[in-house]
Amino acid sequence: MSDLKTAAEQKKRDSFVAICGRVFRADPDYFPQAEYRGRRIYLCTDSCLGAFLSDPERFVAAHKKSYRKEE
Ligand SMILES: [Zn+2]
Question: Which residues sit with Cβ closer than 5 angstroms to ligand 1, an ion?
Fold first, then answer.
């Protein structure tokens, strides 16, 4: 009975920006995810995820243009 809500959620989730700055027109559920400082972030590929996990601070610093730090 929640068709409308489901449709709205799908519409909302059909594009996202990966932490490395790439924009995807796709469902983020199909992409690698991680948590960074309490926020859910998305990565474009598994190798991107590996680079992030090996040194999150450095990775984010290197991609700062696309990531807005909330302070
Ligand atoms: Zn990436």
Answer: 20, 44, 48
Per-10-residue mean pLDDT, the chain, length 71: 62 83 92 94 95 94 66 42
pLDDT number for residue 25: 94
Is residue 19 a contact partner of residue 41, using CB atoms and an 8 Å limit?
yes
Cα distances (Å, whole numbers) of residue 47 to 13, 14, 33, 50: 23, 22, 12, 5
8 A C-beta contact, residue 63 and residue 45: no
d(CA 46, CA 59): 14
- Gap from CA of 19 to ligand 1 centroid (Å): 7
CA distances from 2 to 5, 8, 10, 11, 28 (A): 5, 10, 12, 14, 21
